[in-house]
Queue: 4 jobs
Job 1
Amino acid sequence: MKRRDWLKAAMVMGPAGWLAGCYEKPEVMVHEPGKYKGARDPLLEKHARPEQKQRLIERFNLVQVDR
Amino acid sequence: MARMKFLCDAERCIECNGCVVACKNENHVPWGVNRRRVVVLGDGEPGEKSISVACMHCTDAPCAAVCPVDCFYTTDDGIVLHDKDLCIGCGYCFYACPFGAPQYPQQAAFGGRGKMDKCTFCAGGPEPDNSQVEFEKYGANRIAEGKLPLCAEMCATKALLAGDGDVVADIYRQRVLKRGGRPQTWGWQRAYGDKG
């Protein structure tokens, strides 16, 4: 390959590569204010059960009340 | 519905910092981050008071209101938690919090703050309960085990109470009736307001 061909190839490939760097992902994460977007915490289901709440109250009475 | 709340009885706190040590030890909190601190009001003056401060798990949490990536969520009974995978360490929650609770480990270059870290009421985060990954990111999940925050359970003078708001309030009311004086529920009005 001659030097001229190399230059031509570089002139074509260079801008193409440069433009490829400007590519923007079309999927955009739209944020609704105040709405949690993260993973679901398994504790939430467990914590909603009445027996779990009772357990925590019993624990409180066992450990934190005045003696 | 009952809510989980912290209450620090300023008349009982002796500034031993046991709660701070218990929290650090239980949750393996990184260097430079203190999820709980003991603050002295009127230091050196007659009648000085000490209070133990951490995230109060506010009813209408200002940190959640300002978070640009909405990484905060609240459990049924009012424990405010966050997802570190979403957090971008912007620091808005730190500016919004009236208690100075959000902390940043400062691990990144160019002043990057790293993911926000705060008291989780020993309830971990959005990972499988009591898993290694949860412990590394958020610390212990005592709530899933049916236990309450270690800072309060370790408090030698029972100054720091953590649990169901109604039960905590009953205990505090009995104490005030017994010893007299005015109730000083530091931070309660600001954290829980009238909606409590």
Note: The first strand of chain B starts at residue 4 and ends at 8.
Job 2
Amino acid sequence: MTLALDETPDLSERRWRRRSLWALMLLIPLALFVVSYSDVKEMGKSNNVVPIDVAAGQSARYGGSDWQFIELRTVTEGLKPGALPKNAVPVIARFMVEIGDPDLKNLWLMCSIRLVDATGRSWSPASVPGLPRPAEGIETCTSTIFAGGSQGMRRVVEETYLVPANVVGELRPTIGMRSERPYYLRFARPQ
Amino acid sequence: MRPLGNILVVCLAVIVLYAMQQTKPHYEDLTGPIPAYGKMHETVHTRLVDLRLDQVDFSRELAFTQYGQRKTLTTSGLWAVATTELAATTASTTVAAATWVGPTGLHYEKTDRIGTLSSQMPPMLDPGMPRKVRFVFEILPDQVNGATFTLSSRMAPRLDSEARIAIDDFRKFNDGQPLIADSYDLAKPVPVSGN
């Protein structure tokens, strides 16, 4: 079947038609990028994507403050037998934070501290019944936002988790906040 | 010849486009949930949750304890209690939606008549620590045989997996009618053995 268009004698018109077709190869990906850019950006702000490794004992600047991972300890006191699923162990991760920029309400938004094992599985903070209350002045990441702090102030941040006993040895804490994502901190365990 | 050829091409295009329009999957179907089918007593894997439907019980009344008070809920239909074992796959998550889909396509969401009973809140799930969770539905008696239990992490999953488990193993009479207990007590611990 022959189309009339194919026999257009005008050379310049044919050339431009060919150029337009080639331009589609660039324009279609570009259009997809423009349309999906804000979604992709939002996805990067909601998920931990690019890790920044922090060596044991070192502190790192994140969300305007300096974060140092102190310890991950297993809790045994105060627990009623049978209250937890078998094979589950409560652990508490402790951080020392030196507040840099005190605008925590914006900088620490969507703060989440998670524990990650060697295979990439992650645990979010959990409420463990029967656990003793933390000492005065110790807050979680989110409650620190409301507790506030001035520049140069040092605070202890603790989060509680319930994890399977067999992975406790390999867990590493990670910190992600909306203001810094897609980058997130991944701490090495102190030796 | 040339105009005739052009007209033919246009007609052909119209036919092809019309056929595509009529047979295309709807956008809602294309971007809908991705089903993960399974049977009772076997583990079904979805993206965020591994689950096993262990047991289904039916009763006329539902009993539970709330704020220290015994309460009993009656129904003109049937209480169906699905006992499952759930565990998160890769990250701590929760389960927002569980539905009883009857053989005629009726969808029953998890009942909200129980109120704020802690065992009926969306369960927090963690990797490596399976939990027994019961879901309670209030259904019509004729929606038992051939029903499907569906579960997903989000309310209306789009392009995300949804478990669909055929409810094929429950205590029943010889004529296929389910055995209906007088009462089911949610305050009792989750039964371990099955049928």
Note: Residues 10-46 of chain A form one domain.
Job 3
Amino acid sequence: MNIFPESISQIGSEMDKLFWIITAVVGIATVITLFLFIYPIVTRKRNKTKEEMYMVGNSHGKRKWIYIGMILLFLGDMYILLKEHPIWESVEQTLPDPDFKIAIIGKQWMWNIIYPGPDGKLYTDDDIMAYNELHVPVNKVVHMDIKALDVVHSVFLPQARFKQDALPGRTITRWIKLNKTGEYDISCAEICGTGHSIMRGTMYVEDFNTWKKTMANIYKK
Amino acid sequence: MNTKQLLKPTMKDIPQGRLGMWLLIAGEFVIFGGLMVSYLLYRMRYEQWAEMASHTNVILGAINTFVLLTSSYFVVKAHQAAQRKDSKKITMYISLTILCALIFLVVKITEYSQKLHHGFTFSGKELAASGKAIESSYWGFYFLMTGLHATHVVVGAIVLFIVMQGARKGKNYHRIEIAGLYWHMVDLIWIFLFPLLYIAH
Amino acid sequence: MDTHKKHGFWHRYFFSLDHKDIGFQYLLTAMFMAAFGGFFVYVFRYNLAFGPNDIPLYGDLAAKQYNQLVTNHGAIMIFWVGMPILLAVIGNFLIPIMIGTDDMAFPTLNKISYWVFLLSCFVLLAGFMMPTGAFGGGWTMYPPLSVSDFGYNNPNTTFWTNFFTGNTFFLLAVALEFISMLMGGINFVVTTLNKRAKGMSLMRLPLVVWMVNIANLLFMFSVGPLIAGAFMLLMDILVGTGFFDAYRGGDPILWQHLFWFFGHPEVYVLLLPSIGAVGEIISTFSRKPLFGYKMVILMVIIAAILSLVVWAHHQFVSGIDPGAANIFSLLTIIISIPFAGMVLSYLGTLWKGNIRFETPMLWALGMLATFTFFGGFTGLHLGSNVFDIYAHDTYFVIAHFHYTLFPTVFLGGFAAFYYWFPKFSGRMMNKTLGLIHFWGTFIFFNSIFIPLFWLGLQGQHRRIYNYSAWNDLLMQPEHIMARQIATVSLIFLLLFQFVFLFNFFYSIKKGKKASKNPWEANTLEWQTDSPPPHGNFDPYPVVQRWPYDYNHPEKELDYCPQSEI
């Protein structure tokens, strides 16, 4: 039984790795805490003197183990932040030059996908609109302009580990670069009304030549 | 019974009515603070709103500010009278305060009817139809903030009236101070709203 | 006044100003609402596992109703079960008797706040009878969905048709509930500051009193923006203003900021009273002083202040500035540290203790364990903004916050309930039934949510009526199996609550009579009769020491009440 669905992007694999890093930090903390939980329960019937038991913890010296625990957790936290920050920077804070641009527009309850027309530019008269079908080339940087027409939606590509809310009235540009061909899901992750559960699209990741043929077919229509 | 009274926990430094009112005022300020911050965020984003703000009636707003400040003065006077337990003076000053509140509300209603008359409605359908969709939500803030404040004026006046009835019968003088605190808060919120909505262009 | 006065039923349950009676009214109302919340979750979980048709006790479920049930389950469990039980019941019942006084500072205000709360319950439930049905846009009420069919967007509606909708009633109910809790909160804080018994300095207050007050202050300072936002949303629905309408200059994200500025502290508002009660219980049944009492209070204050500046971690993918997201991620992860200090203090209290496994102690340990190991630690996963991109709005989040809120509200709430039941009813609860209830709840609670963690990692997103559209991703045999395990566990969890109900009503009538101090605890409430008479104490106690002198070396007994010299 696998933990994650298959990953189809470099970023996605790094995110999976980050999950395991955090889980490892948390796991160490869990083992220590679990020991502190179980040991006093196991030894609860041993005889102890009142002096031993009257632990108030009213000075820094007596609380040193707590401080050590907090410092250890702080180090773990910092390690997580160090590991995650470069990924965040490359996913959200940089925008590599696009090989291809599309717009995804959420609408109750479907995804409108706008491809640039033969001129290769988005938002011109020859743009082509498709419903719920997203064709992207493999190993290319794809820019997505994410918008919504009516209510808040959220573009969720589980296999690409990608998610971005689509908001009415603003355009958010994000990028993906996928490294595996195949058919994948587009989900809407933000509740958008009665049809929220039928709002699914399909993402076709195709190698460049197949994708060109597909696009040519789309243009013909 | 007497021994029990003696052993009752003593009150601490601040009378509990005043302490409770301070907490209520803090809560109210966070509510209005939330509104004002939201308003300021929009205001800074949209330059068009300055033009809308110029449609507010600064003169009527200034009159209302003056009226409210005067009423606060009367409340202070009433508080002083309450410390002397002077029921007559309390009744007089609180009545004057409530009169001020009524003037405030009359002016407010005049202002609202002017605004609605000029097409500055809640939903801003007229503005939106004339291509000023973004400007229309300025009036939402205008009506919500002043309206919520006017509700507080009404509530404050009712509270003052109830408290005055008690003082006329010669009891619960300390309530004058607490109701007065509330009234000062209503006043102070207006002092924030007036420049935000009326003056700043 | 010195003898326990018997009041009639009407007087006791409808007009009494006594804080104990009001606390009991809150408790019964919250249990009533919890029945709704529990029934809703049963219906929609049944649908997720076994399909929407012929749900026992319900019938067929449509997508719209599914959304309504999900929405109202969330709102009820947080606002109408968690808040009243942890703030109002614990605050009302415990604060006056723990600080050694007769009643709240403003008994009438207390009564009014209960009535407003009751009104809010009815307003919420009335939403189900509206022509448009109950509100179904998620308990977070994100606009524009929450206004999309009304107000400006629908020219066929008038003020009154907009008024009689589930959306309006839901918002009104939430607003009324907040007003009720604000009034209660003012009351608790003033009572604690002003009505303490002689000698009860702030540093001698029991931990739970501290926690309830910090929670109340936190609530008062975080809820304001949401009340403001609720007015704005209400006006959007009723009269068609454009506060959250992007096409008229409004901004849907503003609501998210206003909501989560309250929403995150709200979790701590629930957590603090619960963890405070757990602290009392752990100290009592370990027969040891609470380790690092002052430090725990300090840590909680730090966490409370930090919680006011972490709200945007709910919005990492909602389109906020990615640079700001880094800061929010940092602050969110940092907030684990004061909580680590607190949990370690509690574990320090357990260390070398003569632990007594009474029912409340089991609940308290269960709460601490589940909260720390699953609720707290998965918080690190979600606080990390990178992993949150994937996990946001999936069942991973659902499992995470149920692992924080369920232990807080139910495990902690039941711990407090079993602990203070002898005090408020004068009778002991049946221990065997209590243990059956604990193990049933604890085991099945875990077996509901551990599968959901996995489903979330598989990419199962929230609030979906059925997953048939995601055949390859989410409808494989193992997914269906995981959903069914969760649902069957949920049904068992709900069934085990009937053990509690039976125990509750049986013990309140026929339980063994409780002595003044059945747990041999130190705090003041155990020095008066069980149940406390009207007026609580006679004479009023004079406090001599802090509440945790268990096994004091100079004392013969292993406990030493606060009023003993």
Note: The mean pLDDT of chain C is 92.
Job 4
Amino acid sequence: MPAITDDPLHVSLRLLDRRVVDVDGEPVGRVDDLAFEQDADDAPRLVSILMGPEALGARLGGVLGRVVAGAGRLRPDAAGPPEVAVTDLEEVDTEVRLAAHRDDLPFPRSEAWVRDHVIGRIPGAERSSSGGKEPGGEAGVRQPPGTGRGGEVGRGPADGGARRLRASDLLGTPVVERSGRRLGRLRDLRLRADGDVHRIDGLVTGRGVVAERLGYAYGEVVGPALLVALMRRAERRTSHIDWEDLVELTADRIVVRDGAAARPGEGAT
Amino acid sequence: MKKLASLTLGILTAVGAFIDIGDLVTDALVGARYGLNLAWVTLLAVVGIAVYAEMAGRVAAVTGRPVFDLVRERLGPRIALVDLTASFGLTGLLLVAELAGVALAIELATSVSYLAWIPLVTVLVFVLVWRVPFTGMERTYGVLGLAMLVFVWAAVALGPDWGALLRDAATPNVPAGEPVPTYVFYAIALLGAQMTPYEVFFFSSGAVEHGWTAENFLEMRMNVLVGFPLGGLLALAIQVVAAVVFHPVGAEAESVAMTALPVSVALGRVGLALAIVGIVAATIGATLETLMSTGYTVAQYFGWPWGKFEKRDRASRFNLLLIVVLLAAAGVALTTIDPIRLTIFAVFLGAATLPFTYLPVLVVANDVRAMGEHRNGRLANSIGTFYLVLLTVVSLAAIPLLAITTAG
């Protein structure tokens, strides 16, 4: 069964910043960023979730983001943030569950470092005794395919021709129509199932995206009345743009076809 | 006894929040200065914190996710980071004050300067966090904190004119000659102290540490319904004894000693001894609560494993953070910074952050997908909305007011 059952799936509500737990439900991190790959003219498809400060730094942006990301790169063998391929996710619901056990994951490495060098040396810090499993000990053997450190996985098909994008590259980028009309910054991505994969199907812009983020836009959050009313108003200030209407995608801006922005109730989903 | 033991999370949370060093002094201060004209704030706070603690406890029981988890999830990384910085900073300041507060209470009993006690208190807190399991910690300080009931006893023994006190409480007004902005300042400081965010951080994380699920709703609600009203009762008792002893003579109360004085007036040495035991236990409880809360917020924001139930080497970053925060707080406390002014300032500013903490709780408590049949009913939503609006107004008013009144 595929882990992602939502169709469409809005990444800000459903994936980004959600808690990531291992197969037993123990926390291992948060979804700090998402990686997409784009082959030729297809819409980018979701390949993996990224975790850790390096990924988070890119989401935060600015000086602070660089500081946070820098902290994540302190590891001597850093090769990008910890990454788990979508195919190795067990379930994506109110949190993201991995198919692997936390002891078999090569991350979070700072947890292991602090354990080995600081906490484990203070008298009274009992070692874990969960079935004689040495944390991380068998990582090399039992590590499920595709859950390795960043760089090893999520590279997609070995043909190497795919363009790699991160959610943080896209989110926050100004969206303009070809005529120059500004549609605000990109706030959310809508994914649709396409066979086994999920591809970006639409862009959401505008200030009303708080309603999406909080969960009001799709009827998941149903109260209290005051917030529902406020969020309904906010929703009117969002624009939905189909991926097909995209003209140009650069680091500084996203250009879309004139008249591509549909408000809710104007025909777009 | 078993029943009592199962209520100690609520009692520790509430006693640690309503009777921490800031409240101890602020309650006596407002009692001395305003009589019972600010008692309504405590009633308002008890209802508000009880409703939000129940909501946060319910969400934690159903989804396994405590409050700061929700803050990050629903507010996104940036706003959540601002909230984290504010909450962590303020809770850290309160931790400094609590450490100094425990030491001040011991000074009261021993006449040895509190500065000498701070290192010892720090070691004690470290041992408690490091060696004592969550339930043991909770029980010891929840139950010892009940010694604070001596304030209620003292209030009765003083034999005040209850009719006049009730009239003051029911028809609050600003006493003649008192500036209105200062009255409002203390109202917000009290509300901020009694609805401080670390209560929901601690209570919801504690609910997860207890492994509560939807089957434990009754236990969780009993904790809320016993704990917070008890905290409110103790706060009111301190206001009453201060109002009776100090208000008529116009004395000011701005120290731990002044808070305990009415008890010794009413009950003599035994009363004073009980009061000191209660104050030490309550401030140690508050120290643990604030310390754990700083760790909970950071760990939950970043998605680290956390908690006392985790094996230490499973939550190593969380435990390291607790140690660093504790040592830093002890260092700041040793600078002889005035813990009372510090805490009034911190809870007042804390009031400004309240909407950010409570909004995600209210939202997720209404999430059909996350909560299913356990989502908020109409009552929780009505009261929750009222408090969200109130706290937003308070939040907007807080900073200008601080400038006008220069903190009381």
Note: The two ends of chain A are 26 Å apart (CA to CA).
